[in-house]
Hints:
This protein is mainly beta. The strands form seven sheets. The chain has a nine-stranded antiparallel sheet with strand order 22-23-24-25-36-1-28-27-26, with no helix packed on it. The longest helix has 14 residues, at 523-536. The two termini are 37 Å apart.
Amino acid sequence: MLRALSLVTCLLPALASADTPEVGTLSGFAKVVNDSPGDQTDPHVSGALVAYTNESGGRSEIRYHDLVSGEDAAIPNEGAFDFVSDISGDTVVFTRVSASSAIYTYQVGAGLPARELAPQPGSSRRAAVIGGRTVAWQDFGFTGSTLEPEIALYDLDQGTLTRLTEDRMLDRTPAVAPDGQTVVWAKCNAEGLQCDIWRARREGTAFFSQALTGSEGEESQPDTNGELVVYASTRTVDGVSDRDIYWKPVNGGTEQRLALPGLDANPSISGSLIAFERRDPAKRDFDIALYNLDTQTLYLLTDSPDNENLNDLSVSDDGTVRVVWTVSKNGDFDVHSFTFQLPRDGPCDVAPTAPPAPTRTAEEVCKQPGKTPLLAALEVARTTGQPNAVSLGFHGKGAGVMCVDNGYSGERATSGWVWLDGREIVDPSRFKPTVALVARDVTLGGNTWLAALISGNPGSSFRIRVYGTASECGATVSPAGSQQVLGQAITPISLGTSGVSSLTFEPGEDARGFGCSTSGTTSGAVGLVMLALWLARPRREPVLVSRKELRRRASSL
């Protein structure tokens, strides 16, 4: 089983997304939150409320803005220096510097002054974040060292303070899930290098903590929606250092990577959407991008000569999405926003209309596709050792045609299998030295998983093509006069799993550690490979498709 899984991992095709197809437009409304004199920066959003830092004339305050009503006001600070805020619902948390550096909370609309959390004389706290009724921050008071800050948690309902970390590491950039039950952060060495992502999840009255990443790369800037943890990671891929967006389940498991050319950083997640900063290789400045995990669609929300960064987003229960970020222009910083409606019923889930009666056979389509859309292309080549297996995911609805080109880039295969959503479409009896093409009518159900295995003589190969009607995932109706944003279909690469380290922490107490046969294959081996492929498939989105390669192959038809 493990060998079968490693076999799949060894043969993952690389993803390149510079040539992705247009799949629709995203329509919404852009708004300047605040571009007054001074610097407005570091916005965070929850529902329609935005909290941000406003610096002017040597003073710094936290302001909040209602994207619906337009109300914009400051949190009174009596001359103190307030900065770096976060918001959940109507509750804002921030750092206030006066005689000490403390964490304060403020409830919008309550008419009450801001109050300090867990007051401590001479406290040294910063980087407060909030989710639900849980507040987390970076606390330097436990160690007294600027190189060894710890992560602390505060329960607003119980009024309890919990020290979450206790080590000689630099713990930083915490984030809290909207329900307050999961906290994530980066743990680094004293130099701020060799960083990994950790999470703590509430189980009963305790927090169970584990490392989510290891030696794969240099990770930072995590965020979580309570189900997934998203982060940026710098890794060497094919001999080149690259920084991309990655994510995995909060309890560990398969890691996925959004492989894009250029530099990607600082992700935020809400619901099924990830917002992040993106610098295209052709540009010098960052733009704000948005990725929909459900439809695998990438949107570029900004494309200007200015530098946009420090993003955050919020998806409301009614499907309203609000994204905020900072714009750097001519030495000043301003806060902008973009609001749009997320379709309640995704096009991928809508039942397709009855397909027209076929006018050509599957074999005719395979030999002369004409203008029939090519939805997927996958090649498998036989090497030595264990049978070779590959898989990919794609979108397609209704009637389709599968073509298997035997001997596409080598000798004709004498043994192989092809599955579609776990159903065996082509078995070994169809792979013969005298057969160059196998054509099959298939039914596509939307998010479709394709897998293939080849055994037999080294040097043999075959290619699979799937034709049909592409689904309209990611397409929305564009209101007149609205801002248009191009959408591109990008499929993440599914990576392997990693081991974890664990600790448990009790509320209100200091933390304490706890704990590839050169010949044909047997039916048992096939079952193992098939099971490995099935287990490796994603549960919510398809994986492992190289769009650039697909287009290259399509042009050669």
